[in-house]
TrEMBL record:
Carbamylation allows a single lysine to coordinate two divalent metal cations. Residues 52-417 form the Amidohydrolase-related domain. Keywords: Hydrolase, Metal-binding, Zinc. This is D-hydantoinase/dihydropyrimidinase. InterPro entries: Amidohydro-rel, Hydantoinase/dihydroPyrase, Metal-dep_hydrolase_composite, Metal_Hydrolase, Metallo-dep_Hydrolases_sf. Homotetramer. PANTHER family: COLLAPSIN RESPONSE MEDIATOR PROTEIN, HYDRANTOINASE/DIHYDROPYRIMIDINASE FAMILY MEMBER. One of its GO terms (biological process) is pyrimidine-containing compound metabolic process. It comes from Ketogulonicigenium robustum. Catalyzes the hydrolysis of dihydropyrimidines and of the structurally related DL-5-mono-substituted hydantoins, to produce N-carbamoyl-D-amino acids.
Length: 487
């Protein structure tokens, strides 16, 4: 379709995070040009029986990630293809500098990787080591539109940073008006527990779960929140998987701290029994950090999404093949950590959330798109159905059904952790900046269609937090004179 032509979406119901309304949507030049009754355009998309929602934003992916001696199996090509097929129109991936590597060099590597993306994307920058060079370059990274910085409290010996490094980094992020992000698990304890389990003969995937109990996540979450509070920086905690971590986030938010928690779709619906499956491959394919938890933890996460104490549902899409998972035969610490989910996040969340009454359709939009667009400061360009917003839209058929299977999925992985799950609620069309990017079961946006979405720092949250910290900063007591001593 020529860029000058317009498209109108008719007969659908618009669902945003705060509104449900029947109206047509006119798309021109890649953005939403009008919303209202009886609109007309050069092309018509019929949304009869469908909901028109903002495209999903997945704030947590690892495409072509170098990790644990290999690379994750989905790159920006297959990963963003999977995203569009599942109604996600933007992914945010992590640029990962090697120890000692320049942040700007790492960014150049990730920009290169993303050239074939089918949908829009942005980056977070990982702080994997600390030094003057990192401190200096963080400003350039922020100026390049990457204002969120991720820290790993786990993966000792590779990605992990220590408390003093985190504190220094968090203070720098506060000064730059950015967002601190955390993978919260106590890496020292995990490493000790894993070594002990291996020595005692537990070599299978169940050892992965035993070595990373909820307490190690809860402790790290509390610690990260304290460090962020001392540094005066907003904090986003990725893959919140348990009540211990959720409780820390809930308490921080009630105390007025600027903290957000992100459950994954995997943790919401898959549980720890997967690691005790008699088939090694089945269990190893589900190894990720943090591990899946029990039903009580899942209930806590669902409740947090409804209550607003947890904000976003992501995937942490980091797919591996069975052959890669088998690197850990005989030693669970060598099983590459990660699972896929990009194509399945929205259908599974709709089925298990909206389909059961745990979430309203508006809450679904909030936790899959709008909340993260606000947190990452790309709202209302993304995450909205509003005049002037990018026309990243899903035409969602709440009655459409399928059974999830690796046989038909877009991912390069040879398995799917949701294999056999029947979902009800699927995208009929996905639009990316006005282009029909998925239709009739096929991804139609060309490779390279995806564009980088730069983001600015110094959000209203940064400004408010800085003002509050300035007001409540410790101040020296001004005394009129010193006591006379030696009299
Ligand atoms: O197991 C996981 N989550 N793999 C991806 C890297 C990370 O920790 O997010
Ligand atoms: Zn992580
Ligand atoms: Zn991750
Ligand atoms: Zn392609």
């Amino acid at each position: 379709m020529p860029a000058t032509q317009t498209t109108v979406i008719k007969n659908g119901t618009i669902v945003t995070h705060d509104l449900t309304v029947r109206a047509d949507v006119l798309v021109a030049g890649g953005v939403i040009a009008a919303i209202g009754p009886n609109l007309s355009g050069d092309h018509v998309i019929d949304a009869t029986g469908c909901l028109i929602m903002p495209g999903g934003i997945d704030p947590h992916t690892h495409l072509e990630m170098p990790f644990m001696g290999t690379f994750s199996a989905d790159d920006f090509e297959s990963g963003t293809r999977a995203a569009l097929a599942g109604g996600t129109t933007m992914v945010v991936d992590f640029a990962l500098p090697d120890p000692g590597q320049s942040l700007m060099d790492a960014l150049a590597v990730w920009s290169n990787k993303s050239a074939r993306a089918h949908c829009d994307y942005s980056f977070h920058m990982a702080v994997t080591w600390w030094g003057q060079r990192v401190f200096d370059e963080m400003e350039q990274v922020a100026a390049a539109g990457i204002t969120s910085f991720k820290h790993f409290m786990a993966y000792k010996g590779s990605l992990m940073v220590n408390d003093d490094e985190m504190f220094a980094s968090f203070r720098r992020i506060a000064d730059l008006g950015g967002l601190a992000m955390i993978h919260a698990e106590n890496g020292d304890i995990v490493a000790e527990m894993a070594a002990k389990l291996l020595a005692a003969g537990t070599t299978g995937p169940e050892g992965h779960a035993y070595s990373r109990p909820a307490q190690v996540e809860g402790e790290a979450t509390n610690r990260a929140i304290m460090i962020a509070d001392m540094a005066g920086v907003p904090l986003y905690i990725v893959h919140t998987s348990c009540e211990e971590s959720h409780e820390a986030i809930r308490r921080a938010r009630q105390a007025g701290k600027r903290v957000w928690g992100e459950p994954l779709i995997q943790h919401l619906v898959l549980d720890e029994t997967e690691y005790f499956h008699p088939d090694w491959d089945h269990a190893a394919r589900r190894v990720m950090s943090p591990p899946f938890r029990n039903k009580a933890h899942q209930d806590s996460l669902w409740a947090g999404l409804a209550a607003g104490s947890l904000s976003c549902v992501a995937t942490d899409h980091c797919a591996f093949t069975t052959a890669q998972k088998r690197f850990g035969l005989g030693d669970f610490t060598k099983i590459p950590n990660g699972t896929g989910g990009l194509e399945d996040r929205l259908p599974v969340l709709w089925t298990c959330g909206v389909g059961t009454g745990r979430l309203t359709p508006n809450e679904f939009v909030a936790v899959t798109s709008t909340n993260i667009a606000k947190i990452l400061n790309c709202y209302p360009r993304k995450g909205a159905v509003a005049v002037g917003s990018d026309a990243d839209l899903i035409i969602w058929d709440p009655e459409a059904e399928k059974t999830i299977s690796a046989a038909g999925h877009q991912s390069n992985s040879d398995f799917n952790v949701f294999e056999g799950m029947k979902v009800r609620g699927l995208p009929r069309y996905t639009l990316s900046r006005g282009v029909v990017a998925f239709a009739d079961g096929k991804v139609t946006a060309p490779e390279g269609h995806g564009a980088f979405v730069p983001r600015k720092g110094t959000t209203p949250v940064n400004t408010a937090l800085q003002a509050w910290k300035e007001l409540t900063n410790p101040r020296p007591v001004v005394r009129s004179g010193l006591p006379v001593t030696g009299v």
